[in-house]
Structure formats: structure tokens, C-alpha cells
Amino acid sequence: MAHFEKTAEFGGAYPHPAPSLPTIKTLALSAALLAYTVGFLILCPIVASSVAKSVSEGNDPALIQFVAP
Fold first, then answer.
1. I want to staple 59 with a disulfide (CB 3.0 to 4.6 A). Which of 2, 14, 20, 54 is the partner?
2. Is residue 49 part of a domain?
3. How many other CB atoms are found less than 10 A from the CB of residue 55?
4. Domains in the chain: how many in total?
């Protein structure tokens, strides 16, 4: 290194800007949709087995007759 060369400063050369509002909204929506999907994938088999158990016991929701008021 010659005496006239400056040292490289990589830390402060390009400051990182804060994310914009649309970016934050997109990330929040993506996180909400991901949580909804995971919840659906977890609860769907549980509900299906519960309905199958009810049907096998003779409590089929399709057989319940609706009585109008």
C-alpha cells in the first residue's frame, strides 16, 4: 500500500434506507396469509377426524332436519 492510497471504508459508504410503507404492508400481508395457511393445514385434519367420528356415532350433520321458525 502506497502512502497516497486511502483505506477502504465499507461500513459507512452506503447507508441502508428504511423500508418503505408499501414494503412493510406487503410483508405484513404475507405473514398473515402464511399464518392462515399454516393454521388451516393444522386444523383441517383435526376437524375431518372429528366429523368422521360424529358420523360413525350416528350424528351426521346432513341428517339433521331444519325446522323453520
1. 54
2. yes
3. 13
4. 1
Of 45, 46, 44, 42, the C-alpha closest to 34 is 42
The string of pLDDT tens digits covering residues 23-69 is 999 999 999 999 999 999 999 999 889 888 888 888 777 777 777 77
* pTM (2 d.p.): 0.55
In a domain, 39, yes or no: yes
Contacts 24+ apart (CB under 8 A), 26-31: none
Q: Which amino acid is at 43?
A: L
Rounded to the nearest 5 percent, the helix, strand and coil shares of the chain are 55, 0, 45
Residue 25 domain boundaries: 21-54
Tell whether 28 is covered by a domain: yes
